[in-house]
Amino acid sequence: MIKSIDLFAGIGGIRLGFEQAFGNDLETVFVSEWDEPAQKTYKANFRDNFEIAGDITKISEDEIPEFDICLAGFPCQAFSLAGQRKGFEDDYKGMSRGTLFFDVARICEKHKPKVIFCENVKGLTMHDKGRTFEIIVATLREIGYSVFYRVLNSKDFGVPQNRERIYIVAFRNDIAPESFEFPTPTDNGKKIRDIIEENPVPAKYYLSECYLDTLRKHKARHEAKGHGFGYEIRSWDAVAGAIVCGGMGRERNLIVDTRQKNLTPTTHIKGNINNEGVRKMTPREWARLQGFPDSFALPLADVHSYKQLGNSVTVPVIKAIAEKIKEVLDNV
After folding, report:
1. Which domain holds residue 325?
2. Which one of 70, 76, 108, 245 is the catalytic residue?
């Protein structure tokens, strides 16, 4: 049995991908997530015999049970470089204290798991002129790990979402392979029509005429200045842009869907619902864009689901990487 911990767990997307790859060979022994709505979604989908821990910065590494794999989709914070920086001869505590990545490092330095897996935004490699990423890699090496990383795009792994993220896989030096092969694309043929709800969606997902007009004026203003900002209506035969938390995550992934004939407003909107069929995607469609199975529960209000899914990971990408990690561990 391989034991894992799930740090900065969100709604459990990384865990789900690893469970799909490892099957019953994987046991999660510790979970940390500070956001209470995310905890509720997590609990609705994973049955553990322990409580979800809150703020990881307040939890001692001694309180965490032994584990083999650390899963960590840590947020990218500004790295503190306070004091005289002497390059990587400094120990990691002097280089990354005060950031959430430090908590990954201190926990893994104590427990020495076989694998550390991290996911982050593609821009992490460019943050602070590349110094942030250098510190992350140097820190992992400092505590005894061989580090491999790759930027992968979700649209290459069976979901129609153009989402580039960096994935970091670190193996403890005594079991590290000479090289690590990240997965190659498995399926880049999916389109938005593959994730559309099967039945007409409620009127509340359709934009009001007033709101749609506001979006058009906003986009026209930016286009006049030579900017590319603004809403976007996607073809059913296209690929979605990256979903993110915040309004533009929804507004840059609008679709035209004329199946719903009852467009009587059910929420407080200005004016009427637009008669062009323009709507935002539903949370379930977003979940499909991230590769979550339809059995994955979304128990909270839409506003929470959009935020949680926009902050989450693409499960099939995680599964594909986890399968490659499993190959290495099976040969240790």
Report:
1. 2-188+312-330
2. 76
